[in-house]
Specification:
Elements (H helix, E strand, L loop, with lengths): L6 E2 L5 E7 L2 E6 L4 E5 L3 H9 L3 H9 L5 E3 L1
Antiparallel strand pairs: 1-2, 2-3, 3-4, 4-5
Helix pairs in contact: 1-2
């Protein structure tokens, strides 16, 4: 995650989000960090523009993409 630009977000649970080469990077406020594979840029943009990033992550990203804790 160190070479990916992480964008701070206004979320009750998510601290920052980044994206590069179809990999979504999510850092939670508790300090845990995850990657989600195969996330197209359009989904990343939808996540960043969602009224609730946490709700979008739970509804769209988590059920459809392989997650790895880093």
């Amino acid at each position: 995650m160190s070479n990916v630009h992480m964008q701070p977000v206004s979320s009750s649970n998510i601290a920052a989000i980044g994206w590069a080469e179809d990999i979504l990077y999510v850092e939670f406020k508790g300090g845990r960090r995850y990657t989600y594979d195969g996330v197209p840029e359009t989904e990343y943009n939808n996540l960043m523009n969602a009224a609730s990033q946490g709700s979008y992550l739970n509804a769209v990203i988590k059920p459809n993409h392989l997650v790895t804790e880093v």
